[in-house]
Amino acid sequence: xxxxxxxxxxxxxxxxxxxxxxxxxxxxxxxxxxxxxxxxxxxxxxxxxxxxxxxxxxxxxxxxxxxxxxxxxxxxxxxxxxxxxxxxxxxxxxxxxxxxxxxxxxxxxxxxxxxxxxxxxxxxxxxxxxxxxxxxxxxxxxxxxxxxxxxxxxxxxxxxxxxxxxxxxxxxxxxxxxxxxxxxxxxxxxxxxxxxxxxxxxxxxxxxxxxxxxxxxxxxxxxxxxxxxxxxxxxxxxxxxxxxxxxxxxxxxxxxxxxxxxxxxxxxxxxxxxxxxxxxxxxxxxxxxxxxxxxxxxxxxxxxxxxxxxxxxxxxxxxxxxxxxxxxxxxxxxxxxxxxxxxxxxxxxxxxxxxxxxxxxxxxxxxxxxxxxxxxxxxxxxxxxxxxxxxxxxxxxxxxxxxxxxxxxxxxxxxxxxxxxxxxxxxxxxxxxxxxxxxxxxxxxxxxxxxxxxxxxxxxxxxxxxxxxxxxxxxxxxxxxxxxxxxxxxxxxxxxxxxxxxxxxxxxxxxxxxx
Amino acid sequence: xxxxxxxxxxxxxxxxxxxxxxxxxxxxxxxxxxxxxxxxxxxxxxxxxxxxxxxxxxxxxxxxxxxxxxxxxxxxxxxxxxxxxxxxxxxxxxxxxxxxxxxxxxxxxxxxxxxxxxxxxxxxxxxxxxxxxxxxxxxxxxxxxxxxxxxxxxxxxxxxxxxxxxxxxxxxxxxxxxxxxxxxxxxxxxxxxxxxxxxxxxxxxxxxxxxxxxxxxxxxxxxxxxxxxxxxxxxxxxxxxxxxxxxxxxxxxxxxxxxxxxxxxxxxxxxxxxxxxxxxxxxxxxxxxxxxxxxxxxxxxxxxxxxxxxxxxxxxxxxxxxxxxxxxxxxxxxxxxxxxxxxxxxxxxxxxxxxxxxxxxxxxxxxxxxxxxxxxxxxxxxxxxxxxxxxxx
Lengths: 515, 393
Known about the structure:
- The complex is a heterodimer of chains A (about 525) and B (about 400).
- Chain A is of the alpha+beta class.
- Chain A has 18 helices and ten strands.
- In chain A, the strands form four sheets. Chain A has a four-stranded antiparallel beta sheet. Chain A has a two-stranded antiparallel ribbon with strand order 2-3. In chain A, strands 4-5 form a two-stranded antiparallel sheet.
- In chain A, a hairpin with an 8-residue loop joins strand 7 and strand 8 (about 130-135).
- In chain A, helix 9 crosses helix 15 (about 420-450) and helix 10 (about 325-335) packs across helix 13.
- With about 400 residues, chain B is α/β, with parallel strands linked by helices.
- In chain B, strands 1, 2, 3, 6, 13 and 14 form a six-stranded mixed beta sheet that branches.
- In chain B, helix 2 (about 30-45) runs antiparallel to helix 12 (about 305-315) and helix 8 (about 175-185) packs across helix 9.
- Chain B is globular.
- Chains A and B meet through helix 2 of A and strand 5, helix 10, helix 15 and helix 16 of B.
């Protein structure tokens, strides 16, 4: 009994220690910053009021900047010593005055982990400020980690939990909760009520789990499956680090706004900005719904062409009498084997107006040049052509595989019954292709929906952004519009939701049709 | 040895304790530029054995991201070499150290005014310039006897070139970087010194109309990308090409060419002024020994170091004193680019600039193809970028 109680308490204690330590670090840093900044602010105020300065603060009055006549951004400042202005020798004070001119009042703990606070205030009410009070405190260290307190409450908690276990089943749970309560005391002392509450809830949770015999069952199951768990752990860790964590972080980022490395929580405003079209009219290529329309059209056009061409070629290649089938197969799979951004760059060059291969070909046949990227229809067609080139081999390979599985006896029997070629295709080939093509279409549609390379490298959004799809617009939010990673993450979440709905309902529709 | 020392520095740095004295500098230089930088570093190390300069080559692709994430955590280099266009972001985020406290007029007078202006942001100076990059005019001497000095002379080259299905001028015209020469030549700007957008102005509209006329009159090809510019020039289908120092490597061996400054824009009488990219040494806000780090910057941007870089790597250096050296002054590449330097506009280093490129490019595409009117397109660009700026606050 007591062994199991200590086991449960150990789990609570480890988690509670992590929470309490995090709370302690945050609280003591905030406390240090507040204390030091208050000290510096007092010094700046004392300087303004000609009062006595606190002893550990270096506080001076700095003059306005005098720019060099030749280089306006080279400015000199002076410092008031007694009644006389002297050249300012301390760069920290100089930079603080510069920042004051740029941003207004400065109050901050220096970022160099020295614990020094810097404050800059104007001593008079005129602007630009002729006398800036700048105060810099001496270094200070935050309070040390209270190891003794922690060891004390751990001992107390263990004792409470053990005592409860000795008294009986109800007292056992009470003891566990009381032990957690002991661990919450330091957090309360550090004025971290949230952390204390979380620790108490944790204790209550584990106590309740103990009542339902959940802790015992989990422990027993873990011991029983320890070999399986040890095998699972490496892969599970990798999946967590590489898939689950980035995914969760990506979704969380969508609720934040990014500016110069700082993130602010903005709730749903990124999503509402995107879904409301961001103030652009519905026919504006920067409106989300316009882009979504283009993306859907792009996906549908591509999938139809990929499947039609892929199946037609597969049917041709499955003919036994075709000479050189192997060579054809290899040649037709080649577009798939070439990295798609290289293909995209080649197609972009071929669609080039003046010297591109396609226009040269058109000229050869006496046709006039097409300025491919100057109208929406031609630019969109250029993208679709390039992506069809990339996409049909996949459908062809899938269809070829499915065709191999159809027994020739079915066709023979149909022929005997007098079925013509179309009827044989309609009633034998197509039903056999469907189970293989269903998942291929689902997969292909997701790839096409997010086919960044072709859009970004072939039409490059021309004309006037009108051929952008959702994923290229998300990229632009992240890298061309002031690093608004929050907007890009919100975009990614929306894309994910659209594809999730499509996969769930799309596959269901296909299955229903099959049934 | 350097790698070992760096590993040691990093290991000590990771422990959070004091570290070996010295200055760590990250750069993305390769080839001769790296050799020249190493020569100057050796010179420093010889004179200052107590505070050695450690050069660390970092691939350019990951450079900015590494800095942005390393410096705020107290890691990363003391100094680094980077183009000036990120200064606004880094200064706003407190990643880089303002330097004007240490810089006096004597320091500043070494440099081209435009190059130094590129290092300034919101009234402070965040670096000292090493090298500059801008466009200039490459001329095929077999096709053009005297290089055009005005745009009217450029137009005059067109009929002869059109006769052989060629152009008088090839440049990346659906790109703000290529178009900027005309924009500034017509007196327009992308933004003012305070970072306020000045995109939709009559001057900018005139520049776009001029660029459209170049296409409509067959003087320049429509929608030319960088690869097309090179192949047109090499095939003799473009009499001139507007490009930067990197273009030299793309010119064919048998092509006779020379570089001259961009022509004067005839309608305004002002010289065409391309964007200037300035590569400078910046200091991390978390540099360990800032005083020494600045001394290193001072040394690496000195006349002697600039002369080494210009001689060894044929770098278009920002220190104008280097061009007093007769070998550098007579260099057929350095001389014209140095002359062009006086007629350039430092690319704005405000964060908003990075939001301008794509919308402006879209607008240029629409206008040059004759589909849209410059005035409305420029208004749309300004409105779009302002929309992003409101959101980014």
